[in-house]
Write a structure and sequence with these properties.
Elements lengths: L4 H27 L7 H8 L3 H7 L3 H19 L9 H29 L4 H21 L1 H4 L3 H10 L2 H10 L4 H20 L1
Helix pairs in contact: 1-2, 1-4, 4-6, 5-10, 6-8, 8-10
């Protein structure tokens, strides 16, 4: 007796809903301040059994991969392209404003990842993806000033990443507005020689 396509589709949809619920639960717990949620807590938050969690994810690395992909999707949905044709001061302001928004959006996940990243190839992979995306964006937005200068591109990317933002926001206790101003000022200073 063969299984009907409708039954298979229903099972697939149910499986996908369970998988999505587990990833959502993982990210929700992190947003709520639990930076190292256990599989038991994640399953409870998702409303599924621990067995269901492990049937969808072989291990925590697999869950990190799915959650990392979701964070990239959230980041991409919030991202708006900035025209390289705008005057430099406007580009700097628009870029700093957008980076501040995105960094605040991913802050809980960045904190959680930083704790586990040295021991997780998956999290290291997603960190490299984030860096590459930021680098690519800078190369486009500030194309006239960067003009193939990898040293400048690397410096701009470094100040645009979570560790710098975390220093301003947490170690120095600056507000979002003050951190955004520090980012804009740093970018302007780095780009000043190229702009002249």
């Amino acid at each position: 007796m063969s299984t009907s396509p409708q039954r298979v589709d229903g099972r697939t949809a149910r499986s996908e809903r369970t998988r999505t619920a587990i990833v959502d639960a993982h990210l929700q717990l992190i947003r709520e301040g639990d930076l190292r949620p256990t599989a038991e807590k994640i399953a409870k938050q998702a409303g599924v059994s621990l067995r269901a969690l492990w049937s969808h994810f072989a291990d925590m690395e697999a869950l990190f991969a799915a959650s990392g992909q979701r964070v990239l999707e959230i980041r991409d949905a919030a991202h708006r392209p900035i025209s390289a044709k705008l005057p430099l001061p406007e580009r700097i302001e628009a870029y700093a404003k957008q980076r501040a928004k995105l960094l605040e959006l991913i802050a809980p996940n960045a904190k959680a990842s930083a704790m586990k990243e040295p021991f997780s190839e998956t999290l290291q992979h997603y960190r490299r993806l984030h860096v590459a995306r930021v680098r690519d964006e800078i190369a486009v937005v500030f194309a006239p000033e960067v003009d193939g200068n990898d040293e400048l591109l690397n410096a701009l990317a470094a100040v645009s990443m979570w560790p710098t933002w975390s220093t301003w926001r947490e170690a120095m206790n600056l507000s979002v507005a003050a951190s955004r101003a520090a980012l804009a000022r740093t970018i302007a200073a780095l780009l000043a020689p190229a702009a002249t």
